[in-house]
Design a protein that fits this description.
mainly alpha; about 250 residues; two-stranded antiparallel ribbon; Methane Monooxygenase Hydroxylase, Chain G, domain 1
Length: about 250
């Protein structure tokens, strides 16, 4: 019986021993004859290993790593958590109810979208310049936050709309809360937010939750209707943290 050839050697030659992590664990016996076209898995593996010898051990990344999402920087600085009075902290049971109700809304929207051919002709196509801040504010003021209105916007503008709304609530005076209509708009756009989340979308959602927490921190627990004032803020913080899984922002 002919002696079986040794194709792979696990031992590294003395002159090639190194502590580098890139050191290969298998070497090809120089006596092995390669076929132009592999016919077995073993021959294919040998061909790949042989071709790998023609490339350098370190490959330089050609991508420009300086390009990040437009609302994040190379070194993302996490803002400190805003103070929240114990009386304003929602219970986990309350948060679970909000998430469950929100999930039902999103499922309803998904069913509607799946039947787009039945209602697409009744939706008014809305065109608005992405960076026209006054145009967006006029849009939110002149229109009702209905599902038909939100679905009339192109997908590319959904994130931008939520970003504009987040900037709008930044003007809420200390001690005040989000007005009812703005809260409805925010909820509507959250309900239509696409998943899996893009990096830009995640950044917008996190910014929304932080600003809601900041607004809540300025509300006096002893003022009249303070619990009603923090309710929409708690809802948005809850949805961003619990539903969209930004758990580090959860109460």
């Amino acid at each position: 019986m002919p002696k079986k050839k040794v194709i792979l050697k696990a031992q590294i030659p003395d002159n090639e021993k190194t502590d580098a992590l890139m050191s290969p664990c298998l070497y090809i016996n120089p006596d092995v004859e390669f076929k132009d076209i592999p016919t077995t898995g073993e021959e294919y593996l040998l061909k790949v290993m042989k071709e790998r010898e023609n490339y350098s051990q370190v490959t330089k990344c050609q991508q420009d790593i300086s390009k990040f999402a437009k609302n994040q920087s190379c070194f993302v600085a996490e803002l400190p958590r805003a103070y929240v009075a114990d009386i304003f902290k929602p219970t986990i049971e309350w948060q679970n109810i909000q998430v469950a109700d929100f999930s039902d809304v999103r499922m309803y929207i998904s069913r509607i979208i799946s039947k787009k051919s039945q209602w697409s002709n009744t939706i008014r196509k809305i065109e608005i310049e992405q960076d026209n801040l006054l145009g967006w504010k006029r849009f939110f003021k002149m229109n009702e936050p209905t599902l038909s209105c939100v679905l009339g916007l192109p997908y590319t503008l959904l994130d931008r709309a939520l970003e504009i709304l987040t900037d709008i609530i930044d003007d809420v005076p200390p001690g005040k809360t989000i007005d009812y209509k703005t809260g409805q708009w925010i909820y509507a756009f959250l309900a239509c937010t696409r998943q899996p989340l893009l990096s830009d979308t995640t950044s917008i959602l996190r910014n929304l939750a932080r600003k809601c927490a900041e607004i809540r921190s300025h509300i006096n627990p002893e003022q009249e209707n303070s619990r009603e004032a923090v309710a929409p803020l708690n809802i948005f913080i809850c949805l961003v943290s619990r539903y969209f899984r930004q758990y580090d922002l959860a109460d």
